[in-house]
Fold these 4 entries.
Entry 1:
Amino acid sequence: MTLDPFSERIRSERRRRWIRIAIAVLAVAGLGALVWLIWFSSVLAVRDVEVAGRTTLKQAQVLRAAQVPAGRPMARVDLEAIEGRIAALNRVDTVEVSRSWPRTVSIRIVERKAVVWATVGGQVRGIDRNGIAFRSYGSPPKDLLEAKITLTDSRDRVQTFQAVAEVVVAITGQDPALLRQIRSVSAASKDSIELELDEGRTVVWGSSDKAERKLVVLDSLLAIDAARYDVSAPDQPTTRE
């Protein structure tokens, strides 16, 4: 029996509709399977943890602090929580935690680095670029400058240590010859930093601002025979015998 064109068109449209429905059902089923695979199955669960960048910290210390949940689906691992726990370690400066699919959590650490040392609470402590006293030494390290700061308020002390560290970092990077002349750095506040040079000379540095300009001015001033050089206001430097 031959169908008339109208009936054939209806049948064709019906077939296309069922095909579209079947495709939609398959797509939903596929999406559901994918969600289950990523979020709930053990196929993409945590199996390994990689730690990079540590120098003084032990692998076990980092892993113990990280508390990475082994066996949990990778997509459900709280990376920020892991970062927060590792960042609480005294020697950690920065940390980044990421997923390395299919089954590895990667931890990249940058440890704090001592810029100067100071006596804090009767102990020789290493101070990092942020003014944090993060480690102890049995004796003063010979490769670091001493920061002489006697502030008792912890917040003021950290800010002053940070300012001193910024000055030392600037001098280290821009004027190594001057660095070799410095015996110690002292400060009564973050805005009153002084460099104690060899031969009994002193540089009044002031705050950590305008370090580059101060170095240029100081380079010229040191040609003058003086006991005290003041570059705290670099556009109006002074010397004193």
Entry 2:
Amino acid sequence: MTNRTITMSYVLRDFNSKSTLEQSPQPIKFITGLGQIMPKLEEEVLALSDGDKKIITILAKDAAGEYDASAIKSIPKEEFAGIDLKEGMELFGEGENGQTVRVVVKAIGDDEVMVDFNHPFAGMDLEFDIEVIENRQANENEVKTGMPDGVVHSCGCGDHDDDHECCGGHHHDEDHECCGGNGCGCH
């Protein structure tokens, strides 16, 4: 079902370890059918009504995908000119197809930088502890713009800074992205 505006809060955990990966400090808003969150998560949330709470498990293959060791690449260090590189830092850029690409710096050599193109949650089964605050038909303006009312940036992105990517108006820890959608560079 498309064109529903969902407002929800969530806690995202690694299903196996139960460690918290991400949490919405304030409710997030998105419009269904636009790829703003993981398709399996959207499917589950669509079935919920205002005030409903549910724990939703999404297997790695339906979440961020399986971990792909071949996604670790060596890139000439000169391509990072002007960046104070540190192991573990996330970098965002534009890929060949124009999509936002996120990499994690794995190692820094004299001439090469090893970067990991895998999503931070690749290979993880995920558990979302969801509370739906509102599930309603998107209004005409929301359908036209693809943004819920009251959200400043496209795809539900709220404030963000140079080191973090955010969607739904919340900040992320330095190693995480938004509930797995693909709007605003969230994958």
Entry 3:
Amino acid sequence: MSKQLNIEAQQKFGEAVNTGNFELFKEVVAPNALDNDPAPGQLLGPEGYMHFFTMMRTAFPDFKVEVEHLVADENNVAFAYTATGTHQGNFNGIPATGKSIKIRGMQISRFENGKMVERWGSSDELGILKQLGVQVG
């Protein structure tokens, strides 16, 4: 598969996240795709991402991810991003605060035949909690 095809698949993944059109995950995520940094209880494959981002967009209806830097080879796409949103619904038991969040993160996705088969990632989860006013530590 070509590097460009993998980049396009990753961009479609981002489109799903940013628009809430989660059916797109079925086009770009393999059924048994492994997430090496899953959310608690996250399922494999497109359904896992559909469930996770439904939760995120319920808590942050204007949730957006903006890619800041992207590199790719024949099998992998890696990128740094900024995620933003306004807390307007329940997030991990935290009722809506109306506060805005802005966090950074990184992701590496491995592709086969134009579909994500494995993912590694890290987001500033502690930063979300602090920006929502949750006492941590």
Entry 4:
Amino acid sequence: MKIIHYCQHVLGMSHFFRSLEIAKALDKEEVLFVAGGERPNQPLPPNVEYRQLPGLCMNENFGGLMPTEEGRELEEVKTERSATLFKIFEEEKPDVFLIELFPFGRKAFRFELLPVLDAVKEGRFGDVKVVCSLRDILVERNDGGKHEARVVKYLNKYFDLLLIHADPKIAALDETFQAFKQIEIPCEYTGFAARKPAENKRDKIRADLEVSADEKLLIASAGGGKVGGPLMQATLESFIRLNSEKCRLLMLSGPFLDDDKYAALCATAKPYKNITIQRFASDFTDLLTAGDAMISMAGYNTCMDILTSCIPSAVFPFAQNHEQRMRAERLAKYIPLKILDSTDMLIMTTAISDLLGQNRNRSDHGINLKGANKSADLIRNLRKI
């Protein structure tokens, strides 16, 4: 089976890594992973061929699309992307078109998606099944229901299946999408699509990081990095004030953190031998098994990594919308999870000390984390119908 998997991340990296986890689960299939954001330095599984569209992204205020390549015009990039995506379909004629988030989000990318979906519906590429791959919680909209009406219209017209990557006891789609009952295509909860850390690597990773047996390792992560700068700065300054010789800090700023902000973090940390700052770690989930505590944002992937690694954690939800806070508050009912707010940023030393004093969380939280495998099974079964 040949699958074109379309994923467009514009701010963070959760969309990319969740999609990649599903592509891994489709290990017996040929997956063309078509992406249009900046590519993280992450190895791909053997069944996945990466196709890069000319890059587009948004700023942290969601102020509209802009090219990732300096000097390019937006309309020029959009025209090239649309032609490239359509050509891929003409040449590859896939069995399945798997689209991450759209039509629930990524409205700005209708210019390239709708021409392909119209052509699929007309049968120009053969018998192609269209599947929407959707996260747990949607961003709020205040437009009188226009967005939801448009979503339902596109789903019922173009799509064959909706996969909801959530455990409904944590987050059910109808909580953040009021028109759920108007969806006519099959809708399946898959469980959360979570990355799994490697087993029995804690000692080796700690040795590689030169963390001794009597030291505590705090990991701080900003996800993609575009909106995590203030959290990283507060964590770094608080860790320095903590002044503990038995603690080490590994900070992952995110690959998309502004260069000047990254340089400022590095300059602040330079005098301290127990602080390491990197932009990105491809083995992030493995690192968490070697850490003793983590401070991070509350994106989808990071929260799943907390669940799979069982690391004591504090999260600072993105304030622009309710998605991250809602997810964190729901998960905090099942695991010990400190949710930070703006006042906590002033007293981070207390939060860090509390975290480093905790034991590792229990793994029997009962939350369904098998979403990638179930998604793969449902996609395969769709072709058998």
